[in-house]
Specification:
Pfam families: DeoRC (PF00455), HTH_DeoR (PF08220). With about 260 residues, the chain is an alpha/beta fold. It contains nine helices and 15 strands.
């Protein structure tokens, strides 16, 4: 198939489905991931009604409150400190073993971890409250993916379990991956959103191993409410931009891993 023919087919799929993913197109068209990514980049530059997102492309709806705008809004926010988050995700991936049951939160840093899992050969079960996270994970048939049901706010990627879903009681959580708006040695891990505080505190308590993924820009910064102390978390994974003096201080309090 010629490149122009492939691009035309991809555009048709985008318009029909509203969204396409690199992993799906690679399988359907029997070409490499770099080839598909190059095709998508060309299409986004050529057509104003397409937007690039993590792992794919979406078709812009003309409706003001369209799904496209919701996904794009989250995508734009997730690009903040993206290189740091990718570095953290690569280091965190090394902590995952075949057969693990994972709980992954809806943060953009954990989304980067999910993106790596979607392209990996690992065979794990994953529970998440992240809408985008679940969507990217489902592309890998080796992964068993469960998305927690609940309340979804406009322009939000997080599903809030307000119905006390029994899904947690059905699984033994080996590892819980989460992020935080801020952390400090004195106050621990904290969030602005009180609903997230409640959920993350419970998840840390119920998981065998808890692993925080926090980029260096959030160190020594406290948010509204603390959901756990450093002592309650098994590993803290961050990027190599963390200052040495800060790294040494935190190593005294927690197992610090630097990507």
């Amino acid at each position: 198939m010629l490149a122009t023919e492939r691009e035309s087919l991809i555009r048709e799929k985008i318009i029909t489905n509203g969204i396409v993913y690199v992993a799906d197109l690679v399988k359907e068209m029997n070409v490499t991931s770099p080839t598909i990514r190059n095709d998508l980049d060309k299409l986004v530059k050529k057509y104003d009604d397409l937007d690039r997102i993590h792992g794919g492309v979406i078709y812009k709806s003309k409706e003001e409150n369209s799904l496209s705008e919701v996904i794009t809004g989250y995508s734009e926010r997730s690009f903040e400190n993206i290189s740091l988050k990718k570095t953290i995700a690569k280091r965190a991936l090394l902590l995952i073993e075949n057969g693990d049951t994972l709980l992954i939160d809806s943060s953009s840093t954990c989304f980067e971890l999910a993106s790596l899992l979607a392209e990996s050969n690992k065979k794990v079960t994953i529970i998440t409250n992240g809408l985008s996270t679940g969507t990217v994970l489902k592309q890998n048939p080796k992964l068993t993916v469960l998305v927690i049901g609940g309340l979804l706010h406009p322009s939000s990627n997080t599903i809030y379990d307000e119905f006390n879903s029994p899904i947690y009681t059905m699984f033994n959580i080996d590892k819980y991956f989460f992020s935080a708006s801020g952390l400090s040695i004195k106050s621990g891990f904290s969030e602005f959103n009180i609903m997230e505080v409640k959920n993350k505190k419970a998840n840390v308590d119920k998981s065998r191993i808890s692993i925080a993924l926090v980029d260096s820009t959030k160190f020594d910064k406290d948010s509204t409410s603390t959901f756990c102390t450093l002592a309650e978390v098994d590993y803290l994974v961050t990027d190599d931009q963390l200052e040495n003096n800060l790294a040494n201080e935190y190593r005294k309090e927690i197992n610090l891993l630097i990507g």
